[in-house]
Amino acid sequence: MARVVVDVMLKPEILDPQGQAVQRALPRLGFEGVSDVRQGKRFELEVDGPVDDAALARIHELAESFLANTVIEDFTVKVEEVAEVGK
Amino acid sequence: MTARIGVVTFPGSLDDRDTQRAIRLAGAEPVALWHKDKDLKQVDAVVLPGGFSYGDYLRAGAISRFSPVMETVIEQAKSGMPVLGICNGFQVLTEAHLLPGAMLGNNHLHFICRDQKLRVENAGTAWTADYAAGQEIHIPLKNMDGRYVADEHTLDMLEAEGRVAFRYVVRGEAADGCGNPNGSLRDIAGITNEAGNVVGLMPHPEHAVEPLVGSGRTDGLPFFTSILKKLVNA
């Protein structure tokens, strides 16, 4: 089994008021020196079977058509091996 | 014979009943449509109402856009059936790529609810023919994700083709409903597709159709009389 991680971020030119609100809160919490914050979404897909090129291509398609709205968002797809956990 | 206008109910739709009522007040026959049902019951036009379909999970309209009813709505809209998306319905139409651009959270991060002043920019669509171009109207606005965005190229194209259907009136008193309420680019409140059969806007015309309730204005009624006339004269 493998985990595929899809990260979705607003495109750089799109205003992110949520990220700005987080950034503005930082000095109040004693965090200095952070000039910008952008907030995004992370999807962790647990995939049955091998994550081969065909499976990755399908996940890419899923990300492009559903998980991200490419009018406003960019996305990345990466595979993360999951350590076997004793059951 | 009058026109039959369908109103889709998604899980989380709020204004489907109000929309049906507005259609009835205009003199057409409202037909309830269900999100799981591909069948449009032979309606002549469809309204996607406001609300929070599928809880706005992922993005507003993102999950509704893949519902069975939308398969048929998308197909029929492309072949000319009139479709109006109000608020959440507008979000569904952009997610479905029936209208360009996308909707994002209000720039001030607050839910907004007020009587908003709009200018009718395009009175040539299936849903706006009973207005006059340049007419200023007050329509209730209530949303979280009302910020219209699109890239510069798309915005220029919309302007050049007269496809900005409604704009927020920004000059004037805030108490009179003026101002850009959500950071929408170029003060865009609503747009139309190239053919003029698909229109989406954030404010809620169905909440301004009778003098007794709400603001007491009936500035939203022409949406529904416009489409009725178009369908009956067709």
Structure description:
- The complex is a heterodimer of chains A (87) and B (234).
- Chain A is an alpha+beta fold and 87 residues long.
- Chain A has helices at 17-25, 53-67, and strands at residues 2-10, 40-47, 73-81.
- Chain A is built from two helices and three strands; from the N terminus they run E-H-E-H-E.
- Chain A has a three-stranded antiparallel beta sheet with strand order 2-1-3, covered by helices on one side.
- The model of chain A has no long low-confidence stretch (mean pLDDT 92).
- Chain B has helices at residues 16-26, 68-78, 88-95, 152-160, 221-232; strands at residues 4-9, 29-34, 45-48, 83-86, 102-104, 112-120, 136-143, 147-149, 164-168, 188-192, 198-201.
- Chain B has a nine-stranded mixed beta sheet with strand order 2-1-3-4-11-10-9-6-7, with helices on both faces. In chain B, strands 5-8 form a two-stranded antiparallel sheet.
- Chain B is globular and about 45 Å long.
- Chain B starts with a strand and ends with a helix.
- In chain B, 54% of the residues are buried.
- The model of chain B has no long low-confidence stretch (mean pLDDT 96).
- The chains are: A alpha+beta (87), B alpha/beta (234).
- Chain A binds chain B through residues 13-15, 17-18, 21, 66-67, 69, 71-72, and chain B through 58-59, 62, 66, 94-95, 100-102, 104-109, 147, 149-151, 183.
- Chain A: Belongs to the PurS family.
- Chain A: Pathway: Purine metabolism; IMP biosynthesis via de novo pathway; 5-amino-1-(5-phospho-D-ribosyl)imidazole from N(2)-formyl-N(1)-(5-phospho-D-ribosyl)glycinamide: step 1/2.
